[in-house]
C-alpha cells in the first residue's frame, strides 16, 4: 500500500520558466469569463485574447485546452493557497455548483430557479461554498456572461453583493484590465 | 425516509463495516443513486472502490425522468445526478461525488499535485465528457438497452468516436496511465467509458487499438488505489445488469 505519497512515481513534466508569459485565448463567452476570473482571483498575470474560438492557454512549453484544464492550471500557478478546499464536504459543495453552472447556467437553462436559490444561499454565506473556492470565479463568470447577454433576472441583491466581493479578490493591478474584458 | 434510504439502504446489522466508527475517515457508509448505463454513475462506483469507501447503490431511473421527480428534487434541487449521501450530507454531480470520495477515502489522492499533470488530467476528463460520452451513450442506448438498435445511429456514433479513441490510443503509447505513470481521476473517467463501450456493438473500437486494450486489461486486474483487497472494475455492471436496470447493490470492502 502506498502511504503518504511514497508509492507515487515521480516524473518530469514540461515546465515554464519565470520569464515565460501566460497567454490565454478564447471566445467572449462564459468559459473565458470563468478562466479570466480564476486567473484574477489567484493573482495570475495573463495576456488575454478574446477573438479566438475554444479556450486555450500557452505558457512557455506548456499548453492546455478546455475550461477545466485551464482553471486548474491557473489555480496551481497562483500565489498563496489553492482555491480548492481541503475539506471533503466543502470540496463537494464547490464542485456541485461548478457542475450546476456547466450543466444548466451556461446553456441558459433553469436560470431563474438556480439564481434565486443561489441568491437565497448567499444571504448567509460570504462565498458560494462558504469559503472562497473555485466555485466563485466559475459561477461568477457564468453570471457575468448572462448579464452581458441581458439575460440576468433583476432583484438578486445578494448575488450582486457577492459579485463585488469576488471582484475585490482580484489584485488591484490586474482588476481593471480583467474586469474590462468581461464587461 | 428519503430516496437514498428507500433505494440504497444501509445494512445496519452488527459488525458491518463503517458503523462502529473505528476507522475515522470511513465511519460513514455512503449511499448513491444513479443508473447502471450512466458513465457518471460508473465513475462514482470506481472511485469508491479505488478509495476503499463502502457504498450502497440504488437506481435512479433517468430513462423514466426520475431526476425530475419530487422525491429526487428534494435531494438534488436542480435534478443533478448521480447523487450521494454521507450521513447528514448530500451532494450531486460526477465532479462533486468523485472528488468528495477521493478526499474522504483511504488511498493517496488520485488528483496530481503537479500543475501540468493536474491540468492534463482535467483536459482528458473534459474530452471524455464532451467528445466521447455523447457517442458512447448512443451506442449503449442502441445496442445494449435496445434489442433492435438503429444501425445508422450506431454507425454515426462509431465514426464520431474513432478519432477521439485514436487520440487516447496515441496518448497511452508512451504512458502507463492517462496522465503519465500514476493512476488519476482521468483513468477513472475513461475506464467507465471504455467499460460501457466494451458492452456495445462497437467493442471493436477498443480491440483494434492495442494501447487502449492493454490499458483496459491492466485496470481490470489492478488492485485498488487504497491497498484494500478490491478490484474496482469488478463492481461495474454487465450488459444484462444494464438491460435489467440493476445497480450493483453495494461496493463491499471485506478486509477492513
Can you describe this structure in just a few lines?
Chain A has 183 residues and is α+β, with helices and mostly antiparallel strands. Chain A has helices at residues 30-41, 67-77, 88-103, 111-121, 135-148, 157-168, 172-182, and strands spanning 22-25, 46-49, 56-59, 62-65.
Features:
heterodimer; A: 183 residues; alpha+beta; Glutathione S-transferase Yfyf (Class Pi), Chain A, domain 2; 2 domains; 4-stranded mixed beta sheet; 7 helices; disordered N terminus; B: 256 residues; Glutaredoxin; 5-stranded mixed beta sheet; 10 helices; 5 strands
Question: How are the secondary structure elements laid out?
Answer:
The complex is a heterodimer of chains A (183) and B (256).
Chain A (H helix, E strand, L loop, with lengths): L21 E4 L4 H12 L4 E4 L6 E4 L2 E4 L1 H11 L10 H16 L7 H11 L13 H14 L8 H12 L3 H11 L1
Parallel strand pairs in A: 1-2
Antiparallel strand pairs in A: 1-3, 3-4
Chain B lengths: L2 H5 L22 E5 L4 H12 L4 E5 L10 H4 L9 E4 L2 E4 L1 H11 L10 H29 L7 H23 L11 H14 L5 H4 L2 H11 L18 H5 L6 E2 L5
Parallel strand pairs in B: 1-2
Antiparallel strand pairs in B: 1-3, 2-5, 3-4
Helix pairs in contact in B: 2-4, 2-7, 5-6, 5-7, 6-9
Provide a descriptive summary of the structure in words.
- The complex is a heterodimer of chains A (183) and B (256).
- With 183 residues, chain A is α+β, with helices and mostly antiparallel strands.
- Chain A is built from seven helices and four strands, in the order βαβββαααααα.
- Chain A folds into two domains: 23-81 and 172-182; 88-168, Up-down Bundle (Glutathione S-transferase Yfyf (Class Pi), Chain A, domain 2), CATH 1.20.1050.10.
- The longest helix of chain A is centred in the middle third of the chain and has 16 residues, at 88-103.
- Chain B folds into two domains: 3-109 and 225-251, Glutaredoxin (3-Layer(aba) Sandwich); 115-220, Glutathione S-transferase Yfyf (Class Pi), Chain A, domain 2 (Up-down Bundle).
- Chain B is built from ten helices and five strands; from the N terminus they run H-E-H-E-H-E-E-H-H-H-H-H-H-H-E.
- In chain B, strands 4-3-1-2-5 form a five-stranded mixed sheet.
- In chain B, helix 2 runs parallel beside helix 4, helix 2 crosses helix 7 (185-198) and helix 5 (115-143) packs antiparallel against helix 6.
